[in-house]
Design a protein that fits this description.
The protein is of the alpha/beta class and about 425 residues long. Helix content is about 20%, strand content about 30%. Strands 12, 13, 15, 16, 18, 19, 21, 23, 25, 28, 31, 33 and 34 form a 13-stranded mixed β-sheet that branches. The protein has a seven-stranded mixed β-sheet with strand order 5-4-1-6-10-7-11, sandwiched between helices. The radius of gyration is 27 Å and the shape is elongated. Uridine-diphosphate-N-acetylglucosamine binds next to strand 1, helix 3, strand 10 and helix 7.
Length: about 425
């Protein structure tokens, strides 16, 4: 069976009631990408056939709006008209799937699953499910085994007796199942349980017994964490953040304090860069070699730092491009700004990029010297080697020519700088 095509189905048809925000958990931001994108992109790495995303009507529109134009837009959507349980969700998706082959089923709310684990599951000859041994099993379905260790039940918490409640081996909600056996098992499901729902777990148990499938067991909750509440969401964010930071550190980025450093998914940092504490770097930013960032810096809007540039304490950079060796070391906002190589941005500099209606760019030339407390009202250009005096306010479109010195409010020229 393991050689046949692997189709994949992700279940995200639930109402997200336990999140309590009225919005779908699938779209909660998790380290720079929606929760669901983590699941879909992990599944994509092992899928060889169809990719089906199961949604419910409540959140269909918002999730489809996100899907369109996202990196996952090649997923096909199936709809479950009513959230009658995970078994019913699979039933609704079956008509979009081939009659035979294998199906990988994942819950859309388990964002930290690793593609390697999914690949290992897919390698099992006769189908498989994923379980985990956890410290606190509450909220999960428990695995019941007989004296020989054979799987005899997957019991939802609401259906557990006291003895089963204490079981620490839980169902991660990930299965690789033979499609034709699954079709039969889904058709035979009933709602005879505490929640009155169709449970996919019942169908999975019956398919795995029929095909003599495996239970693949991992340790701990980090990888299988299911996000049901915003408390779970914060835990998932911490886990993923630690993994992201670990990858950067192993590739040569010095992170002084991982506990206070937030680097989102999709940030490129070259080896040799150093990130000081209390720093946030959002998706799409790129940092060159030997850069220094922080403490207390915030980089966003695809900010780019060329090699050896610095953004220091209390600096926010949004859609800024720092040239090689350029520095803004203290208390500065650089928005929609290009900073030339080796320019120095003095303490307290602000690029006033927003006029209340539109955003405008500021261009600062190479080796420019921006005095402390300068306000640059965009759109404006400060030339190569130009200087602004402390407290200068350079008005929009009053470009400062190369090498010129300006001071005051509004800034006026003092002529060419002797150092230029
Ligand atoms: C499910 C499993 C449980 C497992 C846990 C792992 C069942 C019956 N239970 O429980 O054994 O330990 O996942 O995280 O399968 N969904 C639908 N339609 C529905 C209901 C749910 O598409 O009608 C989707 C949800 O959007 C979610 C996923 O299926 O992404 C799991 O549903 P959820 O309600 O979170 O199941 P759990 O109670 O966590
Ligand atoms: Ca869940």
């Amino acid at each position: 069976m393991s050689s046949s095509e692997l189709h994949v189905l992700v279940l995200a048809g639930g109402e997200s009631t336990r999140i309590r925000t009225g919005r779908p958990k699938a779209l909660l931001d998790l380290c720079g990408r929606p929760l669901l994108e983590w699941v879909l992109s992990a599944a994509e790495e092992v899928a060889s056939g169809s990719r089906i995303l199961l949604l419910g009507p409540t959140h269909q529109e918002s999730i489809e709006t996100w899907l369109d134009g996202s990196p996952c837009e090649n997923w096909k959507v199936a709809i479950q008209p009513e959230a009658n349980g995970t078994g019913d969700a699979v039933r609704c998706a079956l008509e979009h799937l081939p009659e035979t082959g294998r199906l990988l089923i994942l819950c859309g709310d388990t964002p930290s699953l690793q593609p390697e684990t999914l690949a290992f599951l897919a390698e099992q000859e006769n189908g498989a499910m994923l379980s985990s041994i956890v410290e606190d099993p509450s909220g999960y379905g428990r695995l019941a085994r007989d004296k020989e260790g054979n799987l005899i039940g997957i019991v939802e918490e609401a259906d557990c007796d006291e003895e089963t409640l204490a079981v620490q081996e839980i169902n991660a909600g990930v299965y690789v199942l033979d499609l034709s056996a699954l079709r039969k098992a889904i058709a035979n499901l009933d709602t005879d349980n505490a929640q009155g729902e169709f449970y996919l777990t019942d169908a999975a148990l019956s398919v795995l017994s029929e095909t003599d499938g495996a239970v693949v067991t991992i340790e701990g909750e980090d990888e299988i964490l299911g996000v049901n509440t915003l408390v779970d969401h914060a835990r998932a964010a911490r886990i993923l953040r630690e993994w992201i930071l670990g990858e950067h550190m192993l590739s040569g980025v010095q992170v002084d304090d991982p506990a206070s450093t937030f680097i989102e998914h999709g940030v490129e940092i070259a080896p040799g860069a150093r990130i000081l504490p209390f720093t946030v770097i959002r998706k799409g930013c790129k940092v060159g070699a030997d850069c220094s960032i922080g403490p207390f810096a915030h980089l966003r809007g695809a900010t780019q730092m060329a090699d050896k540039s610095e953004l220091g304490n209390f600096v926010e950079a949004k859609n800024a491009q720092m040239g090689e060796g350029a520095k803004a070391k203290h208390l500065t906002y650089l928005g929609d700004t290009t900073v030339g190589s080796r320019a120095n941005i003095g303490c307290g500099t602000i690029t006033a990029n927003y006029d209340g209606t539109a955003k405008h760019r500021t261009e600062i030339g190479s080796r420019a010297f921006i005095g402390s407390g300068t306000v640059l009202v965009a759109p404006v250009k400060v030339g190569d080697g130009a200087t602004t005096g402390a407290g200068a306010v350079v008005l929009s479109n009053r470009d400062v020519p190369d090498g010129e010195v300006v001071i005051g409010i509004p800034a006026k020229s003092l002529g060419k700088s002797t150092k230029a």
